[in-house]
Each structure stands twice: as structure tokens, then as C-alpha cells.
Design brief:
With 226 residues, the protein is of the alpha/beta class. The protein has one domain: Beta-carbonic Anhydrase, Chain A (3-Layer(aba) Sandwich), CATH 3.40.1050.10. It has 6 helices and 7 strands; from the N terminus they run αββββαβαααββα. Strands 2-1-5-6-7 form a 5-stranded mixed β-sheet, with helices on one face. A hairpin with a 2-residue loop joins strand 3 and strand 4. Helix 3 crosses helix 4 and helix 4 crosses helix 5. The protein is globular and about 55 Å long. The chain starts with a helix and ends in a 14-residue tail after the last helix. Belongs to the beta-class carbonic anhydrase family. Its EC number is 4.2.1.1. GO terms for molecular function: carbonate dehydratase activity; zinc ion binding. InterPro entries: Carbonic_anhydrase, Carbonic_anhydrase_sf. This is carbonic anhydrase.
Amino acid sequence: MHQTFVELLERNAEHAQEFRSRFGDVQDSQHPAVVTVCCSDSRVLQDEMWGNDEPGRVFTCSNIGNRVVQRTEAGEAVSGDVLYPVAHTGTDTVVVVGHTGCGAVTATYDALTHGLAEPPGIDHCLGLLKPRLQAGVEALPEGVDRTEAINRLVEYNVDRQVEFLLESDEIPDATDVIGVVYDFQDVYGERRGEVHVVNVDGETDPDALREEYPDIGDRIARLWTY
């Protein structure tokens, strides 16, 4: 047995001991307040970033590139794992969580700029990002280096995912849709692991957002206003 898995089981035993009394209210149903769509990067600590240790509070989805789109026979649709809590558990807040140095955004950038290919499964995922990032790649300011380009496109991707949700008939108009970037590379400041708000219901101007949401003004930031 691989030692890493043995260690995971040991951690799980500690988890089970700590949480054994916390599932009483959610054993038969769930009504999470928020659904988060995170990138499935091992560095993105999806519940820990919110300090969440409450079962039933956050419905967490993840995939490479924090995508909210899937392809169906009828065309593009809101991904089922994102839509499920909105449609069936009364969840009325969606948070799209990008992160600095995103590998999926990097791979999409490379595919768009250099034609680099990935295995079919990864290529399928990137195929959902390419049409949304193409215009962003073309709009990048001259002189930005590769790292700067990727992190600007991280914001751009979050914006496009938020936009898709807002334009979808599957998402009720009353649903709050928020876009954020999780920073563990000191891109937005020196507080590694902090979440920065870049988009609220389609509004991306930091000054406008700070005026409307002064209580979180210090958490609103953007690298790129295009």
C-alpha cells in the first residue's frame, strides 16, 4: 500500500473523529448557501480557503480552468455540477474561483499562440476555454511577459465564466454570480491564499464595485481592465 494513501487514511480517521457529530442536520438533505466553481489545482484549497468546516454549507465543484460550461447534444449548457445546487437545493449564490498561475489557462494560451497539442481528454477541456480566451489573448497589452499574460487571462477567464452564467436562461435572475481570484503567488499582494473579488454580477470596474460594496472594498482588485 502506498504510504501516501496510508497517511490519507490516518488523516481521515482524525476527520471522522472530529466531525462525527456535525452531520446530524444534513444527513437526509442539503441546502448549501453557495456553490463554488474552483480549478482542480492541488494548490487551491477549496474549502480551507473559506475557513469552511461546516458540512452542507458550500457545494464545491472543480475542474481544470474553473469552467461552468459543458457541451451537450443541444449545444453548450451550464455544467450540471454547477447547475444542480441552483436547480435543486435552493442555492442562490455562485462563486467562480480562478487562481494565479492557472495551468489550464496557461495550456489554453499556449494552444492559441503556439498551437501546442494536449491529449484528447485535456484538449476537450481546453476546447471549452479556447473560444472564450481567444479575444483576451488578442487584447493583451504589448510588452507583458508570459507570467503577466497568464494572470491577466485568469481574470479574463473568470469574467467569461461569469458572463455565461448571467446570460443563461438556466440560472435564475435573482442568483448572485461572483468572480474571484485565489492568489498564492503574491500577484495581488503579499497575503498568500487571499481571495480577490474581480467581478460581481458582470460588473468588473474596481471603483464601481468598491462604491457599491464598501464593506469588502479592500478585497476588490484587478490586474487588468480591458
